[in-house]
Amino acid sequence: MPAPSPIARTTLLLGLAQTLAWASSYYLPAVLAAPMARDLGVAASTVFAAFSVALLVSALVGPWAGRRIDRLGGRPVLMASNAVFALALLALAAAQGPVGLLAAWALMGVAMGSGLYEAAFATAVRLHGTEARRSITGITLFAGFASTVGWPLSTAIELHGGWRATCMTWAGLHLLVALPLNALLATPAAGQGAAAVPTSAQGGAHGSGGGLSAAARRRAAVLMAAVFAVAWFNSTAMAAHLPMVLQASGVALAAAVGMAALVGPAQVAGRLLEFSLLRRAHPLLSARLASLAHPLGALLLLAGGLWAAPAFVVLHGLGNGILTIAIGTLPLWVFGAQGYGQRQGLLMVPARLVQAGAPFLFGLAVARWGSGALVLSASLALLALGALLWMPLAAPGGTAASAAR
């Protein structure tokens, strides 16, 4: 049986480790917030506020972690993140009040900023240069099942042993499973400099950003950061309030919960679509199509009401799944692989900041306008599409060109 290719090996290791990392951090409050709040004598909103602090901390840590990956490769950074994940989860299990809860989630933010998608993408790029697009897509295919795996497992452990045992179990899995997986990652070839990348990453006709002026590179970075911020805002807002939005459209509670569960499979379907039909397309095309999905679904729901609800959920999931990949591949294509980690961390700072406030802000919109709140999320997605249409790229031959033409 032939050995897997280096890219396939990287994808498998990072995909499995990322599934565990997302399941034990980002998807943890959905199951444990209520029992945590009851046991600690605080409101559930306090737990989610602490989770928002974790997101803010992750935004600050991201650029630093990316810079370390650019210099050292991802293996030591991701292994360290597993240790911090485990420590944060043990701190959660030991929390006795709001102060301990806040401190534990702040520590979790350090792990999230150095151990979730941005770090995994930067690791793949550091190892494989512009060929990392396939790996980035594969990583998201694996981790797309994080909630599918994480929510039932957390629920089962919490029912039998309580939320503290759940946190301790996830901590053990980080040390016994995720850390060894990340330890098996390859290291950059000896002799490569701090900012070096594989030769293929320098890509002459595309992906180097060399044909863009300094002003055009700044404009592309600002527009990209705005697109990513919209993507994370809408993704987090829907994750928190999708059943409520569907109910406001006339869907019964049980049906709304069932329909909302379609988001996960739709996201995976979108990533499979990107991996197959769109794998040779420009990442900008994939991003544009993905940005249209949520507004189209919102239009169908607002116009068709109850009967269009499944279509909205599927379209949102498809678009969100592809945009997750675009967050990793678009900077690689526009700017190239050199310095990818630090740049990715900086580009994601606005996204992490708006993500922290998305559940609260969109919740206000739903409370005031019901399903009409989708006008807000759809308008933001259309603004992101406009940014993608205006984004400058390096044309073949190294001359600057606008992607809008």
From TrEMBL:
<feature type="transmembrane region" description="Helical">
    <location>
        <begin position="347"/>
        <end position="367"/>
    </location>
</feature>
<feature type="transmembrane region" description="Helical">
    <location>
        <begin position="77"/>
        <end position="96"/>
    </location>
</feature>
<keyword id="KW-0472">Membrane</keyword>
<dbReference type="InterPro" id="IPR020846">
    <property type="entry name" value="MFS_dom"/>
</dbReference>
<feature type="transmembrane region" description="Helical">
    <location>
        <begin position="314"/>
        <end position="335"/>
    </location>
</feature>
<feature type="transmembrane region" description="Helical">
    <location>
        <begin position="373"/>
        <end position="395"/>
    </location>
</feature>
<feature type="transmembrane region" description="Helical">
    <location>
        <begin position="220"/>
        <end position="242"/>
    </location>
</feature>
<dbReference type="InterPro" id="IPR011701">
    <property type="entry name" value="MFS"/>
</dbReference>
<feature type="transmembrane region" description="Helical">
    <location>
        <begin position="248"/>
        <end position="268"/>
    </location>
</feature>
<feature type="domain" description="Major facilitator superfamily (MFS) profile">
    <location>
        <begin position="10"/>
        <end position="396"/>
    </location>
</feature>
<feature type="transmembrane region" description="Helical">
    <location>
        <begin position="136"/>
        <end position="157"/>
    </location>
</feature>
<dbReference type="InterPro" id="IPR036259">
    <property type="entry name" value="MFS_trans_sf"/>
</dbReference>
<dbReference type="Pfam" id="PF07690">
    <property type="entry name" value="MFS_1"/>
</dbReference>
<keyword id="KW-1133">Transmembrane helix</keyword>
<feature type="transmembrane region" description="Helical">
    <location>
        <begin position="43"/>
        <end position="65"/>
    </location>
</feature>
<feature type="transmembrane region" description="Helical">
    <location>
        <begin position="289"/>
        <end position="308"/>
    </location>
</feature>
<protein>
    <submittedName>
        <fullName>MFS transporter</fullName>
    </submittedName>
</protein>
<feature type="transmembrane region" description="Helical">
    <location>
        <begin position="102"/>
        <end position="124"/>
    </location>
</feature>
<keyword id="KW-0812">Transmembrane</keyword>
